[in-house]
Design a protein that fits this description.
CATH topology: Vanadium-containing Chloroperoxidase, domain 1
CATH class: Mainly Alpha
Largest sheet: 2 strands, antiparallel
Distance between the termini: 43 Å
Structural class: mainly alpha
Radius of gyration: 19 Å
Shape: globular
Order of helices and strands: HHHHHHHHHHHHEE
CATH architecture: Up-down Bundle
Helix content: 55-70%
Strand content: under 5%
């Protein structure tokens, strides 16, 4: 079941890669509410964020398909390690969307009180990225109903909501405020995500897909409305092969 789902999602994403290539910022702003909503919701598929989401699906698929070669029950392989120990509870609380909400409300307040348009745009960006991420995550959980590794009576394992929401937050912070703040936000998001494995709530592939969903919406909406980014990602294969360089160009 999960194998078929990974293949379907991967093919679906890359079947849409040409849809958004001709989207312009002015075109999006002139759309009707319904069309604009659909365009924003599909941003992870139609902008360069598709490579983020696609990469996470490939990684998660490889992990899932390879699970038969190793001990995969976290109660057997991970419980004794638990690198975060009881700190996993901190990650659980942090990952309930509080970071997203605090960012959204604080920037909205600043934008409203000081008539700061950039703060208002940042608030809107975080709100939409978080909302679309939440809808996508809940829909997949409801449809797939994968059992949690440590709590098999709970069928809400795939994908990880904590990972998706925290990486949506971190990606908006990085996109809006640069990599100094973004690195801190991504560090917090990574802690939250790993804490879910630490506490037996999720498998690794749940977390990887959650990361991809959140990051794809955070960056996808940025790509959709702000074409002239001061930096861009590039994947560059080395001349002799066998090495892939991931570059950040200014």
């Amino acid at each position: 079941m999960m194998k078929k789902i990974f293949i379907f999602i991967f093919l679906f994403i890359f079947s849409l890669t040409t849809f958004g290539n001709n989207i312009k910022e002015s075109d999006v702003k002139d759309l009707s509410f319904g069309r604009r909503l659909l365009t924003e919701f599909s941003a992870p598929f139609t902008t360069d964020a598709k490579y983020i989401l696609g990469g996470s699906l490939v990684a998660a698929g490889m992990v899932y398909l390879n699970k038969g070669r190793r001990t995969y029950n976290k109660r057997e392989s991970f419980k004794s390690a638990r690198p975060f120990g009881e700190l996993g509870d901190v990650g659980e609380v942090m990952g309930w969307g509080f970071l997203n909400g605090i960012y959204t409300l604080s920037h909205f307040y600043n934008g409203y009180m000081n008539e700061d348009k950039e703060s208002m745009r940042a608030s809107e960006h975080m709100f939409k990225a978080s909302l679309y991420t939440l809808i996508t995550t809940v829909t997949l959980k409801t449809f797939i109903q994968e059992k949690r590794p440590g709590y098999p009576e709970d069928r809400a394992s795939f994908p990880s909501g904590h990972s998706s929401m925290s990486f949506a937050f971190a990606s908006v912070v990085a996109a809006r405020h640069g990599w100094a703040y973004g690195s801190i936000a991504y560090g917090a998001a990574t802690f939250i995500s790993v804490s879910r494995i630490n506490d037996d709530w999720h498998y690794l592939h749940d977390v990887l897909v959650g990361m991809g969903i959140g990051a794809a919406y955070g960056w996808g909406l940025k790509y959709l409305y702000d074409r002239d980014l001061p930096y861009e990602f590039a994947i560059i294969p080395a001349k002799k092969g066998g090495v892939i360089q991931v570059g950040l160009t200014y």
